[in-house]
TrEMBL record:
Name of this chain's protein: S-adenosyl-L-methionine-dependent methyltransferase
Keyword Lipoprotein listed: no
Gene Ontology biological-process annotations: methylation
Coiled coil: none
PANTHER family: O-METHYLTRANSFERASE CICE, PUTATIVE (AFU_ORTHOLOGUE AFUA_4G14580)-RELATED
Alphabetized UniProt keyword annotations: Methyltransferase, S-adenosyl-L-methionine, Transferase
Residue ranges of every copy of the O-methyltransferase C-terminal domain listed in the record: 201-428
Molecular function per GO: O-methyltransferase activity; protein dimerization activity
InterPro entries xrefs: COMT-like (IPR016461), COMT_C (IPR001077), COMT_dimerisation (IPR012967), SAM-dependent_MTases_sf (IPR029063), WH-like_DNA-bd_sf (IPR036388), WH_DNA-bd_sf (IPR036390)
Alphabetized Pfam families for the sequence: Dimerisation (PF08100), Methyltransf_2 (PF00891)
Domain O-methyltransferase dimerisation: 87-160
């Protein structure tokens, strides 16, 4: 690591310049050129998975820019602008979403006066203009003339036809409302120490006695919330490039006829991609009964009928808190499952899988892997890539999304994202050991095997 005498400001500027040039070259060498903020048509690269170099450059650029501003600006300036006043942003964004302002602006690409916008959505025009001006100043929408607004590269992501619209309603509604009771929940002598899923800030603000997802499931009038959340998760998955696992993990090395169990995989969005990319795999999809009926009778006949004809997919309902999965699979794949549960339930799930594993089986946990911001790496964390100096070791603002998600899970369902050391400890409690750490887009993969399997843990240099 560089000595403290090295000018870290110059180092941050070097990182910013290098990352920006890397991204500039990616766009210049591809089709479509460098995008402009005023663009409303998707760029050809927007729908493609980022290369590791592009993803790294974005993370470094965001992290270095934020760290440079936090270093050079007066601290009270940064605290007020970046922490206090940003609390208003979700409410302004929610107003734009609920009134479907992006959809209204689509009818006039050159810009629409706020009076005309207000006639379409029934809002007092001067108040709406102030909200849209704030969002435009944050580069979401653009003010083309006084009180005249148009869509841009960011705001078109909020069209009602985009899954991010549903995600935005969830994040600016349930999550933001719940977060207002975070302090009261933490200070509550009963709820503060509890990890019970109905002892959350969301429960405080809504007054509901049951966990959020249970409340949605047991009340028909809340079906739209569950549906909205499911659609929103499609937008989340695309944003975080979860599909990188399809190519980044060596599925073909498992050999012809290898079996992969997607445990808790819903209707099989990820399994469908695996089936298309790796026809040699034999796939097992397990989730709750309703999801299996939907997957078997609706989704897969429409999306992958040939996989059903070739008998390469098996659908089997499961309650993985009470049952073990299909035995003898080569890989048990869990995407965004453990982060929804506290430790006791995670151990129950992993014990069930351990009972089903055969010699050579492994578990692939596909979730965020949190890193500490500045402390020395723990034993397991040494397998994780660390940001270049002088950035925070976890890339700071460049990887902030996973830390937001971690706190949002606490707010909504009393669960959490975890560090690599925490995943290792979970595995050890049920007789599993760490094999390898993977990078799948901005998420990670923790590969575990049985402790009595003779498979050597790979070194940091071999992994990255």
């Amino acid at each position: 690591m560089p000595t403290p005498s090295i000018d870290h400001i110059s180092s941050l500027l070097t990182l910013i310049n290098s990352a920006a040039r890397t991204l500039q070259a990616v766009y210049s060498n591809g089709s479509g050129g460098i995008p402009r903020l005023d663009d409303t048509e998707p760029h050809p690269l927007d729908g493609k998975l980022s290369t590791p170099e592009m993803k790294e450059a974005v993370q470094v650029l965001e992290g270095a820019c934020a760290q440079l501003c936090a270093t050079l600006a007066r601290p009270n300036h940064t605290v007020v602008n970046k922490f206090f006043l940003t609390a208003l942003e979700p409410s302004c964004l929610r107003a734009a979403l609920m009134f479907k302002i992006p959809d209204i602006l689509q009818s006039r690409p050159s810009g629409m006066h706020v009076v005309d916008i207000s006639k379409r959505c029934g809002v007092e025009p001067s108040k709406l203009a102030r909200i849209l001006r704030l969002l435009s100043t944050k580069h979401c929408f653009r003010e083309v003339d006084r009180d005249t607004f148009a869509n841009n590269r960011l705001s078109v992501q909020l069209l009602a036809s985009n899954p991010l619209y549903s995600l935005g309603l969830h994040m600016t509604g349930d999550m933001t409302d719940g977060a207002t009771k975070l302090f009261e929940t933490l200070a509550d002598p009963k709820w503060g120490p509890s990890f019970f899923p109905a002892h959350t800030p969301w429960n405080k603000v809504t007054g509901q006695p049951m966990a959020m997802f249970d409340f949605w499931a047991q009340n028909p009038e809340m079906n739209s919330y569950g549906d909205r959340f499911g659609i929103g998760m499609l937008g989340w998955g695309t944003t975080v490039e979860a599909a990188a696992v399809v190519n980044a993990y060596p599925w073909s090395d498992l050999g012809p006829g290898a079996t992969v169990c997607d445990l808790g995989g819903g209707v099989g969005a990820m399994t469908i991609q695996l089936a298309r990319a790796h026809p040699g795999l034999r796939l097992k999809l397990q989730d709750l009964p309703d999801r299996m009926v939907q997957a078997k009778n609706v989704i897969w006949p429409a999306e992958c009928p040939e996989v059903i004809r070739e008998n390469r997919i098996e659908f089997k309902a499961i309650d993985f808190l009470a049952e073990a999965p299909i035995p003898g699979c080569d890989v048990y794949y869990l995407k965004n499952i453990l982060h929804a549960f506290p430790m006791a339930e995670c151990l129950t799930i992993l014990r069930g899988i351990r009972m089903s594993m055969k010699p050579g089986s492994r578990i692939l946990i596909h979730e965020y892997i949190l890193q500490t911001a500045g402390c020395p790496a723990q034993l397991a964390e040494r397998q994780l890539k660390r940001a270049p100096w002088p950035l925070l070791s976890n890339y700071g603002q460049g990887r902030i999304r996973q830390y937001y998600l971690d706190v949002s899970l606490m707010v909504l369902v009393n669960s959490q994202e975890r560090t690599l050391d925490e995943y290792v400890k979970l595995g050890e409690k049920v007789g599993l050991k760490l094999m390898k750490v993977w990078e799948f887009g901005e998420m990670g993969g923790v590969e575990l095997c049985a402790q009595d399997d003779c498979m050597e843990i790979m070194s940091c240099d071999a992994i990255f």
